[in-house]
Structures are given as structure tokens and as C-alpha cells.
Amino acid sequence: MPTYIVLLGPPGAGKGTQASLLSEKFNLPHISSGDIFRENIRNNTEMGKLAQTYISKGELVPDDVTVAMIRDRFKKPDCARGAILDGFPRTPPQADSLAEMLTEFGGKVDLVPFITAPTEVLIERLAGRWTCKEAGHIFHNKFNPPKQSGVCDLDQSPLYQREDDKADTVKHRIDVYKQQTAPLINYYLQRGVLTEVNGIASIEDVASQMNTLISLEEK
Ligand code: AP5
Ligand code: MG
Predict the structure, then answer these.
(1) Domain assignment of residue 15, given as a range
(2) Catalytic-residue membership of 129
(3) Which whole number is the average pLDDT over 40-68?
(4) Is residue 133 part of a domain?
(5) What is the pLDDT of residue 191?
(6) Is there a catalytic annotation at residue 191?
(7) Is the pLDDT of residue 219 over 80?
(8) In the chain, how many domains are there?
(9) Which end of the chain is more exposed for a tag (fewer CB within 10 A), N or C?
(10) Is the residue at 18 inside a domain?
(11) What residues does 116 pair with on adjacent strands?
């Protein structure tokens, strides 16, 4: 049976950081809707141009565009074994669409680690985040500094600060999360797959909470 894990949590909670560790550990694809949008923006595609108008303001990209993009990603054969989803779904209609897509693979959402952290922590994390241009690898000037300032440890590409990590946009993203994404907490609680993870701990400690959850799930 394939295993599909959805990482849920506010902006800056650590979804991308943990998704990339899980993807490596379990050899499952890391599907980040934000990364796919940013790649399209870099390549100046029509979808990228449209997504940019929402992302720069900290708004969600409309559901139909987002779902079509993820549906396309799921056509690649690597998803048949399972996936670590980061940033998708982000609204109840997106969650319904995901459930539908997974039935096509004979799968379902198996586990939803919900990473929590208070707003002041999220703001500090996003203010100090540096992202790699090439592949979206994530660093932090204080909590996870690169070996050489401004350069990705993994692929040596330049690090940049995301446009939507400006203080005002971050605050708006957190409000959008509370209004449009937080309803997924109940959505997945009702389906018996959501477990809270304490996101204030160090990156290593959060990773070890994740690993415990997954090994319990496998039993
Ligand atoms: P997206 O890219 O998904 O951004 P987000 O959800 O706002 O989340 P972030 O990437 O900001 O945070 P994260 O939880 O991944 O934290 P990270 O691991 O980087 O989406 C961007 C935009 O795209 C959206 O606003 C929307 O416009 C659009 N979009 C995307 N998906 C969509 C969808 N499904 N529907 C509609 N629109 C969509 O960590 C943050 C920082 O903290 C890093 O510097 C990291 O090093 C550090 N850190 C991580 N964990 C720890 C820790 N435990 N201790 C200390 N530091 C830590
Ligand atoms: Mg992220």
C-alpha cells in the first residue's frame, strides 16, 4: 500500500524542513505546492504569472489552478508508492480533491502531522529564512545557518529571501492560514489521521517526533 503523509501547519512551522528530511529518510517524493509555484514563476510560465499575483500578496492561489497543478504532479510515476505533501491541501475543497486523486492510486491520506508554533516564533523563523534558488533547500541565519553565507550547502546555488517573507506579507499569510487552512485541522481530526507535533522544538527534535509517529503508524 502506498503511504501519503500531509504536513499541516502555519507558515514557518517547519513543513518544508521536515518534509525534506522525511522524503530522504523514506525515499518518497516531496511534493511542495509552494515550490512548484515558485519554479513556474522562475520559468515565467502562464501559470507562474498567475500564481505570482496571489503569492506576492500572501493570498492563496485559487483552488482550481492549484488542484490542476497537483493532479499533473501526481501523473509522474514516483507518486504511486506514496508522497510527502507539503503545503497542499490548504482548503477543504483541496482536501476533497486530494482524497479523490489518491483513490486512483488505491491510496488515502494516512497521516497528518500538524506542526504547531506560536505566531512570534513563526515570524522570527520567516524573517531569518534563506532559500536556495536551484532546489528550494531551506536555511535559517540563526537556527540552521549554511556553512558559507549566501550559498546552499547542498547544491552551491545562491540563497535568497522569499518576497513573501516580508513582515507585512507574513502577517497576512498567517491570517489567511487561520481563515482558510485551519479548518483542515477538524477535517483530518474527524477522519482520525491528525496528530499534533510540537514545532517549537529544534529541527532534530521535531524530526524525531515525526519518525516516532510514522513508526507507530506502520505497526
Ligand atoms: P508555501 O511555500 O507552502 O509557504 P507556507 O505554507 O506559507 O509555508 P512556509 O514555506 O513559509 O513555511 P514552512 O512551514 O515550510 O517552514 P520552513 O520549513 O521553511 O506557500 C507559499 C505561497 O504559495 C502561499 O502563500 C500561497 O500563495 C501559495 N500556495 C502554496 N500552496 C498553496 C495551496 N495549496 N493552495 C493555494 N495557494 C498555495 O521553516 C521556516 C524557517 O524556520 C526556515 O528558515 C527553517 O530553517 C526554520 N526552521 C524550521 N524548523 C525549525 C525548528 N524546529 N527550529 C528552528 N528553526 C526552524
Ligand atoms: Mg515551505
Answers:
(1) 3-118+181-218
(2) yes
(3) 97
(4) no
(5) 97
(6) no
(7) no
(8) 1
(9) C
(10) yes
(11) 198
Residue 84 has pLDDT above 80, yes or no: yes
The pTM for the full model equals: 0.97
Residue of the nearest CA to atom 55 in ligand 1? 143
What's 16's domain CATH number?
A: 3.40.50.300
Any atom of ligand 1 within 6 Å of the Cβ of 138: yes
Q: Say how many Å lie between the CA of residue 217 and the centre of ligand 2.
A: 24
In three-state form (DSSP H/G/I as H, E/B as E, the rest C), the secondary structure along the chain is: CCEEEEEECCCCCCHHHHHHHHHHHHCCCEEEHHHHHHHHHHCCCHHHHHHHHHHCCCCCCCHHHHHHHHHHHCCCHHHHHEEEEECCCCCHHHHHHHHHHHHCCCCCEEEEEEEECCHHHHHHHHHCEEEECCCCCEEECCCECCCCCCECCCCCCEEECCHHHCHHHHHHHHHHHHHHHCHHHHHHHHCCCEEEEECCCCHHHHHHHHHHHHHHHHC
105 band by pLDDT with thresholds 50, 70 and 90? confident
Over the stretch 34-44, which tens digit does the pLDDT of each residue have?
999 999 999 99
Look at residue 167 and tell me whether its pLDDT is greater than 80. Answer: yes
Q: Which residue is listed with cell 517526533?
A: 209
* C-beta separation of 216 from 125 below 8 A: no
